[in-house]
Specification:
The chain is of the alpha+beta class. About 35% of the residues lie in helices and about 25% in strands. A hairpin with a 6-residue loop joins strand 3 and strand 4 (about 75-85). The chain is globular, with a radius of gyration of 16 Å.
Length: about 150
């Protein structure tokens, strides 16, 4: 298995995993947002990144992460936003390798912390997460906001 940044030629394989991720979490992300997300990964001016895990030429896992400022430190933090492994490759070290790739990227970028969320029902993933990170104890709250006409691109 090899982990590397995703490049333009990986788009079709990534979209297959991205659809699988959405099905797993029972969400539907609009196609235009998917396209924008992909373009952001390839834009060197964006703080968003994507790595893929490959078995030979086959993309078997993906991770997305975002560097962001924090009010708690001078440096940046890294938010691991999405992690997904194809069903047939789960429990084979793919998720761990992808998380470790984010840790390396965050360290290289001078980030002080990598953090992420998972759904409380994602017990299988939490078995791994409990081995590679510490639970923060925080509970997430959210409220959806309707974007204004001057939304961010």
């Amino acid at each position: 298995m090899k982990v590397r940044f995703l490049v333009d030629g990986d788009r079709a394989a990534w979209k297959t995993l991205w659809r699988g991720y959405q099905e797993f979490y029972e969400v539907e992300i609009p196609p235009e947002v998917t396209e924008l997300t992909w373009r952001r990964f390839l834009d060197p001016h964006e703080p968003m990144w994507a790595h893929g895990a490959f078995a030979g030429e086959e993309l078997i896992g993906m991770v997305h992460y975002i560097f962001h400022r924090t009010c708690w430190a001078e440096g940046r933090d890294c938010y691991l936003q999405d992690l997904f492994t194809s069903a047939e490759h789960r429990a084979g070290g793919v998720g761990r390798a992808l998380i470790e790739s984010v840790y390396s990227a965050a360290q290289e970028a001078g980030c002080g912390r990598v953090h992420w969320l998972t759904h409380e029902t994602n017990a299988r993933a939490m078995l791994l997460y409990d081995k590679v990170a510490e639970r923060s104890g925080f509970v997430e709250y959210e409220r959806r906001i309707v974007a204004s006409a001057t939304g961010v691109t």
